[in-house]
Specification:
Chain lengths: 274, 417
């Protein structure tokens, strides 16, 4: 079944490309800031994270640490990728209803094109972040210890990002179906994504919330973001996180597989149940 | 490979009326049912369900075109959506051999913020063309659409006619083997519509099989030698297009619903309407022969100005004119009338006649209307135009005075030979 899906999507790859191109083009065409728009949301998210860190530093009576701020940066950008994949793909089928009721094509193409256009945004903002971090590393204030550690282990970051994308894709596929049948799903998704930034520990470390902080690791996004933070800031993943990462990977893969099954079964109902 | 482009074999499709699954409570059992669909009987109607297609079968040979007509809600579009794989049948099988394109809506996938050119690529891709194919045909498409001056303008600034033309132009330049067309040829102005029909003819000539849905019966007649009539989801006629059109009119008559005006307590009414040729037997009119309408006016109370009006329309709905008896002063009783239309001004085709009675010196009060219009076929003339203009053609001499008739020149020509 999955191979069937892959084959069909491959056969319609030009459509996938065209829809992705449309999403990107329409998004940036009339924006005054043009492509700068991509940086707008990450900058906002990172700034609010920095405010949190400053407040925490103030209350703890210690000076704000640069590596904490780097941690906020490297967790915010992947979180925004996750949020924008889930948010846009869960609305994608509804948004393309006109097509779905009129023309046949593999329906997976629609949420997938949302995913790809979210990835496009991410690539640009991640590149921006990379440049910023390089500048920080080279010209940053010399506080004795570097704000993050450059090592071969950084190559694990894309792996964790990959898991995050699979997780988001599974969720997006499922929600895009659910959204067609139950219109209130859209609002639920909005609310969850709005507050999810706290439940995914984007601004904090797992051990900053006291003895119950680990509960948040049950959110499969949290271990992935924590992993990325540890790889960048601490130079390696703490061993205790490994089972949690395994948990995230399992949830991501199983969730994606389940999403494909659900999508495959619900797909032919889309046009009539709208 | 099969000789048939499309084979539809006893297809059933049901839909549900009313709201569907608006709460989780309803959805979850339904999804569970859907997952183990094989366990439930597909051919049973549950609560609020109805058959949108009932045991539909038909075939289309390669290079053949088939019309589908029927009243609104008969299942025509459902059939096309089925063929184009947008929805699935509950039971029955169908097969489409060849690359299929469906024109269910013009401008499918158009986005208002993109320019005409960008939309050509987007819509073309959605319809299943490859980028290369579109590139090769880009100029042709733009030319066909006739919007070249605005091709780099976002289409949200187009008029709706321009959008429709561009949409059809894209769709028309696909290279399908089987083409499904649903009611899209009614876009644009008359000239563009003719262009579309010509294009469809070319496609059919190049061995494309076409399934064509339209309410514009003249288009169906022009494109399809064979037609099926759907009514309430079932095929009620399958065969020659002429017969299909008659069946269609019959079907429309069956459930015509309430008359436009209640005939209750009407001071007068029409009965025994007969429409015949001059021989008073055939129920067809022949071109250039008189047509006869007979009826009986039954008057219930004295009326000063009563007139009979017969409105003539093409079967496609174009109003052509009325035959008016002029006002009559009538006492209660029965008055047989005959109206002779001489010579017949109509050309080949089917026409509807609507009978009504009017009162008042200005004939401005409708007192009685016939529930269902009658239909009449006209034959033996030229197809493709509604009205004949019969008159005198004369030749003129140097002073501009009539010197003879055009027929004489023809006779002269023959005698020379």
């Amino acid at each position: 079944m999955v191979t069937g899906m892959v084959k069909e999507v491959y056969a319609y790859r030009e459509l996938l490309a065209a829809l992705t191109y449309r999403d990107i083009r329409v998004k940036y065409k009339q924006a005054v800031m043009g492509i700068m728009w991509v940086f707008f949301i990450p900058v906002l998210a990172i700034s609010s994270g920095i405010i949190f860190r400053l407040a925490m530093a103030y209350f703890s009576g210690q000076p704000p640490r640069l590596d904490d701020i780097v941690a906020v940066m490297v967790k915010s950008v992947p979180w925004l990728l996750f949020a924008s994949i889930v948010g846009s793909s869960s609305n994608s089928l509804i948004g393309n209803m006109g097509l779905i009721t009129k023309i046949y094509f593999p329906r997976e193409v629609v949420p997938l094109s949302s995913l790809l256009s979210a990835l496009f945004d991410f690539t640009i903002s991640a590149t921006g972040l990379l440049i910023l971090l390089t500048l920080l590393y080279t010209f940053g204030p010399n506080t004795g210890e570097p704000p993050f550690i450059v090592s071969v282990k950084l190559l694990y970051v894309p792996v964790l990002l990959g898991v995050l994308i699979v997780l988001a894709a599974g969720l997006g596929l499922t929600l895009s179906c659910a959204n067609l049948f139950l219109r209130d799903v859209k609002y639920l998704v909005q609310v969850f994504l709005q507050f999810g930034i706290f439940f995914s520990l984007v601004f904090f470390k797992h051990d900053e919330l006291g003895s119950w902080g680990w509960v948040l690791l049950f959110n499969p996004v949290t271990p992935l973001l924590e992993g990325i933070r540890m790889l960048v800031v601490e130079g390696g993943i703490e061993p205790f996180l490994f089972p949690w990462l395994a948990y995230s990977i399992t949830v991501a893969v199983a969730g994606f597989a389940a999403a494909c099954v659900i999508f495959d079964h619900a797909e032919y109902l889309f046009a009539e149940y709208v | 490979m099969s000789d048939y482009a499309i084979q539809v074999d006893h297809v059933w499709k049901k839909f549900r009326k009313g709201e569907i699954h608006d709460s989780l409570r309803e959805l979850i059992p339904a999804m569970a049912k859907g997952l183990m669909r094989r366990g439930t009987k597909k051919d049973e109607l549950a609560n609020r369900e109805f058959w949108a297609l009932k045991d539909v079968s038909f075939e289309v040979k390669r290079g053949e075109s088939l019309g589908i007509i029927g009243p609104n809600g008969a299942g025509k579009s459902t059939m096309l959506k089925l063929l184009s794989r947008i929805i699935r049948p509950n039971s029955g099988r169908y097969e489409v051999n060849g690359r299929l394109s469906a024109l269910i809506e013009v401008g499918a996938g158009f986005h208002g913020d993109l320019t005409g050119r960008e939309n050509i690529y987007l819509s073309g891709t959605i319809l299943g063309m490859k980028r290369k194919q579109i590139k090769a045909k880009e100029d042709q498409i733009i030319d066909f659409s006739g919007v070249e001056d605005f091709i780099d303008t976002p289409i949200k600034r187009y008029s709706s006619g321009m959008v429709a033309r561009l949409g059809f132009a894209v769709a028309a330049h696909m290279e399908p083997e089987v083409l499904l067309v649903d009611e899209v040829l009614s876009v644009g102005d008359a000239k563009f519509r003719q262009k579309c029909i010509r294009h469809m003819h070319e496609l059919i000539r190049s061995n494309v099989s076409v399934v064509f849905i339209s309410h514009i019966l003249d288009q169906v007649r022009a494109l399809c030698p064979k037609t099926i009539v759907l009514d309430h989801g079932a095929v009620v006629y399958s065969g020659e297009t002429e017969g299909a059109i008659h069946k269609y009119m019959e079907v429309l008559g069956d459930d015509g619903g309430p008359a436009r005006k209640s005939n209750e307590n009407a001071p007068a009414e029409l009965r025994d309407i007969r429409i015949t040729g001059t021989d008073r037997k055939s129920e067809k009119w022949r071109v250039q022969q008189p047509g006869v309408i007979e009826c009986v006016v039954v008057v219930h109370r004295p009326i000063d100005h009563l007139s009979v009006l017969v409105g003539v329309s093409s079967i496609g709905g174009l109003f052509l004119g009325t035959a008016n008896s002029g006002p009559m002063c009538l006492e209660p009783g029965e008055y047989p009338l005959r109206f002779t239309l001489d010579p017949m001004p109509l050309n080949n085709g089917d026409y509807t006649l609507e009978f009504s009675l009017h009162e008042g010196p200005m004939q401005d009060q409708t007192v009685w209307t016939m529930r269902q219009p009658r239909t009449i076929s006209v034959y033996d003339g030229y197809a493709g135009a509604f009205v004949r203009f019969d008159g005198d053609w004369q030749t003129l001499d140097a002073q501009g005075q009539p010197s003879g008739r055009t027929q004489e020149l023809y006779l002269h020509h023959e005698s020379v030979e």
